[in-house]
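Propose amino acids for all 169 sites.
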């Protein structure tokens, strides 16, 4: 599980251009954000994405509760979530739902976080694009995240590290 900030400040990246002509991208620096919370099972590639207006303990608690309910976590199903040690992941106000177990990575080791690799996929439709409002960005991003949830093999190829523990049914 990981979070990613996206907003009206554009993501500028490489693009195709006609030979001899410099590519142009409309850029207007504005500072309005939303956050993508992503959950992925590296072995199967199953993923869930949540668009949330903030990143804090309250928002994380709401997403965690919904994730536990949607995945059937509880007495009959145990899920281990690997997280970075952000303050909102381990604050005293956070109540971990039954069936979820939080495991924290060592500090400064986000390269070990499988969900970190999903951001290259979420950014694809946003690169070199200008959005007039956060709602316009959210509409496109929501549709793209719904599509990504069906791309299990693509997510698996990015997140299933050779050293990742195998799930035994």
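Proposal:
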């Amino acid at each position: 599980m990981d979070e990613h900030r996206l907003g009206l400040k554009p993501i500028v990246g490489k693009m195709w251009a006609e030979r001899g002509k410099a590519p142009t991208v409309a850029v207007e620096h504005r500072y309005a954000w939303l956050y993508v919370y992503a959950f992925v099972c590296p072995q199967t590639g199953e993923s869930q994405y949540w668009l949330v207006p903030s990143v804090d303990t309250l928002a994380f608690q709401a997403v965690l509760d919904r994730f536990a309910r949607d995945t059937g976590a509880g007495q009959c199903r145990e899920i281990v979530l690997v997280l970075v040690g952000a303050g909102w992941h381990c604050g005293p106000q956070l109540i971990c739902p039954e069936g979820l177990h939080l495991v924290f990575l060592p500090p400064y080791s986000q390269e070990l976080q499988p969900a970190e690799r999903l951001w290259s996929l979420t950014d694809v439709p946003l690169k070199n694009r200008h959005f007039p409002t956060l709602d316009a960005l959210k509409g496109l991003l929501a549709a793209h995240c719904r599509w990504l949830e069906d791309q299990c093999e693509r997510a698996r190829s990015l997140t299933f590290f050779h050293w990742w523990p195998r799930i035994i049914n």
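The longest strand covers residues 33-40. Residues 2-159 form a domain with the Nucleotidyltransferase; domain 5 fold (CATH 3.30.420.10).
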